[in-house]
Design a protein that fits this description.
Blueprint: E1 16-21, E2 26-28, E3 33-37, E4 43-47, H1 48-52, E5 57-59, E6 66-70, H2 77-98
Parallel strand pairs: 1-6
Antiparallel strand pairs: 2-3, 3-4, 5-6
The structure holds zinc ion.
Length: 108
């Protein structure tokens, strides 16, 4: 009978399943997040906020696997633009309501 010694001991922190480049993840500008398919069928998710706060670990909501995201500042530029656009939209909406927001010049 073959012995298997790759069963993780309980209580250990999750092992990093893989290292994935952010560019290989699917961007979701509406959610300001990226996803990457997990072998269990669900999706690893990492948000722009998490990356900006130094979190590079994406977790799968359905199993205990985690992946480490490899990224560079320029990889999140597009998502940051999206974040700005969404904030601007929100401000514009609140401007219409209370009219005391400030509007900044947009340099194209
Ligand atoms: Zn999973």
């Amino acid at each position: 009978m073959p012995l298997t010694n790759d069963i993780p001991a309980p209580g250990l922190p999750p092992t990093i399943y893989d290292h994935i480049e952010l560019l290989d993840c699917t961007p979701h500008p509406d959610k300001l997040a990226w996803t990457y398919p997990c072998p269990c069928g669900d999706l690893f998710t990492i948000t722009l906020q998490e990356l900006q706060h130094g979190t590079e670990i994406a977790t799968c909501p359905s199993c205990s696997l985690v992946i480490q995201i490899i990224w560079e500042e320029e990889d999140i530029d597009e998502m940051k633009e999206e974040q700005k656009a969404q904030e601007m939209e929100r401000q514009e909406k609140s401007n219409m309501v209370d009219g005391n927001g400030t509007r900044e010049e947009i340099c194209a």
